């Protein structure tokens, strides 16, 4: 997982950062909703596959106690330098083994902008199990996937069924189709997942 991304960061071929910037207005609206739901409550967040930390910084700037995790050291080093955040805000860790990455527990919000879609089915299940282990009972996951045809652009992509299959014990409570400027539909969507009540 990390070798291909490490090479991409080293060579500067990181098209997913452009996609992350393009989707920023939708993410801002989704975060507005999450913050309205927690006006006085906890706001502890984790940015999964944080890369160079732009979304981690966004969360911190919006008042979240946020931490970014990524398994590519080059990306995390840049995240610390570029964002003006304490290096404690970033962890070099594997999203497939979150409980052992040293990020702690008790997160209210998980943010995934394109990380899940790059994993195969067994690794997606590991990631989902780790998220469940670290999540508060009323936690939310905001997950962006570029869609099933993104393998043509270097990733596997993911469908709604892929998300539902991996995240047992969670329900998709919202879906926003990703739209570029001009309004034409592109592959991909934002999914909002919440934990199912525990009996």
TrEMBL record:
Keywords: Methyltransferase, Transferase. CDD domains: AdoMet_MTases. InterPro entries: Methyltransf_25, SAM-dependent_MTases_sf. One of its GO terms (biological process) is methylation. It holds the Pfam family Methyltransf_25. Residues 46-127 form the Methyltransferase domain. One of its GO terms (molecular function) is methyltransferase activity. This is Methyltransferase domain-containing protein.
């Amino acid at each position: 997982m990390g070798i291909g991304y490490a090479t991409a960061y080293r060579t500067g071929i990181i098209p997913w950062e452009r996609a992350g910037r393009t989707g920023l207005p939708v993410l801002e609206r989704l975060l507005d909703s999450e913050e309205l739901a927690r006006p006085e409550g906890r706001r502890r967040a984790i940015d999964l596959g944080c890369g160079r930390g732009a979304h981690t910084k966004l969360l911190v700037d919006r008042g979240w106690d946020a931490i970014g995790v990524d398994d590519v050291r080059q990306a995390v080093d840049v995240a610390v330098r570029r964002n003006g955040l304490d290096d404690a805000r970033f962890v070099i860790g594997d999203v497939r083994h979150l409980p052992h990455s040293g990020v702690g527990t008790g997160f209210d919000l998980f943010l995934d902008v394109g990380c899940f879609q790059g994993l195969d089915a067994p690794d997606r299940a590991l990631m989902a199990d780790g998220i469940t282990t670290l999540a508060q009972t009323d936690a939310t996951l905001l997950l962006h996937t570029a869609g099933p045809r993104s393998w043509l652009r270097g990733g596997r992509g993911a469908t709604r069924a892929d998300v539902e299959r991996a995240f047992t014990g969670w329900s998709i409570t919202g879906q926003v189709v990703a739209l570029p400027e001009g309004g034409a539909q592109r592959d991909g969507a934002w999914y909002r997942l919440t934990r199912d009540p525990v009996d």
